[in-house]
Amino acid sequence: MRPARALIDLQALRHNYQLAREVSGAKALAVIKADAYGHGAVHCAQALEAEADGFAVACIEEALELRAAGIQAPVLLLEGFFEADELPLIVEHGFWCVVHSLWQLDAIERANLAQPIQVWLKLDTGMHRVGLHPTDYKIAYQRLQASANVAKIVLMSHFARADELDCTRSEEQLAVFQAARADLSAEISLRNSPSILGWPAVPSDWVRPGLMLYGSTPFEEAQAQASRLQPVMTLESKVISVRELPAGEPVGYGAKFITSKPMRIGVVAMGYADGYPRQAPTGTPVLVAGQRSQLLGRVSMDMLCIDLTDIPQAGLGSSVELWGKNILASEVADKADTIPYQIFCNLKRAPRLYSGS
Ligand SMILES: *Cc1c(COP(=O)(O)O)cnc(C)c1O
């Protein structure tokens, strides 16, 4: 059997969820959209359901997958419905629904729903992606309140630059939010992972941790709360071939690495078809036989090469950690000029094995 696999530590997932709650002092919706950032939405939801205040996903397709697996906790649709004909299913399954645009508000008012739904009314405080304009917000709230199709309303927004700890943009966005909701009395939800970890003064009734649940830091620099996270995913494989090369020999596609001295090279069963980033350059860290080493040359579809020159105990069959508790996904992401979010979401082919349920 091919040795590439992703080990998922559900105990670490629960630890990180509790950390989100502890740091924020708020209720927390575990964000498990995009198949829990590659970690497996159903497994993650099952592992968290006993303690979670609820879950959040991107769309009704993802929410229905949770219900089909028997998850009964509240599930928020982060972009609400894409078409009004989703509304009866939203009622049937008790999903909570973001309203980010006036057309959604119109559709809710026009619908004839068997029961009222819970709405999270999203304000655009400056990210300028989705959310109502501040001048429309209060009127939208009042229209929702007046609609027989609406039960509870939660007020929400989203920060664009909370991962930049010395940037004042989050405070500006908060000020826009506070002005728009000044005379509305409802629960509020503003914070995703970077704002949970890095912006303790932002008020919250509900937080929405995503990346941090999976134990990865959203920050480029070291940060005290982020250092308490436990990585959930370990992507690992084994050395399947070893070669000794003299100086001056090319390694892999395009001869992107040329040996500078006699070198021992290990070939690992892991490639971009598993989601390992092809953009990762020579020098990207790996752990082999318990020692840090580095990637050499181009990542190919099913294999990549690593340096074994100074690790005599490593050889055929040695375990390799591509990321996990020793090599952080954020380090690999940084080398590959991307973010840990994308590293996780790209995971495929390598089977996931769960522990700590
Ligand atoms: C994805 C998402 C989150 C989670 O963000 P993280 O940075 O992964 O914590 C929170 N809120 C909304 C609206 C989202 O779309």
Radius of gyration, in Å, reads 23 Å
Bound molecules: pyridoxal-5'-phosphate
CATH top level of the largest domain?
Alpha Beta
Largest sheet: 8 strands, parallel, barrel
The number of helical elements comes to 11
CATH superfamily of the largest domain: Alanine racemase
Helical content, roughly? 25-40%
Tell me, briefly, the overall form. elongated
Report the β-strand fraction as a percent range: 15-25%
User: Could you say how many structural domains there are in total?
Assistant: 2
> What is the total tally of β strands?
18
Physical arrangement of strands within the biggest beta sheet: 2-3-4-5-6-7-8-9
Low-confidence stretches: none
Spatial separation of the terminal alpha carbons = 25 Å
Explained architecture:
With 357 residues, the protein is α/β, with parallel strands linked by helices. It folds into two domains: 10-216, TIM Barrel; 233-355, Lyase, Ornithine Decarboxylase, Chain A, domain 1 (Beta Barrel), CATH 2.40.37.10. The chain has helices at 10-24, 33-37, 41-48, 60-68, 87-93, 102-110, 134-146, 169-180, 193-198, 329-335, 340-345, and strands spanning 5-9, 27-31, 54-57, 75-77, 96-99, 117-122, 150-156, 187-191, 206-207, 233-245, 250-251, 257-258, 263-268, 285-288, 291-296, 304-307, 319-323, 352-355. The strands form three sheets. Strands 2-3-4-5-6-7-8-9 form an eight-stranded parallel beta barrel, surrounded by four helices. Helix 1 crosses helix 3. Bound molecules: pyridoxal-5'-phosphate. Residues 31, 33, 78, 158, 192-193, 208-212, 218 line the site of pyridoxal-5'-phosphate. Pyridoxal-5'-phosphate binds at residues 31, 33, 78, 158, 192-193, 208-212, 218.
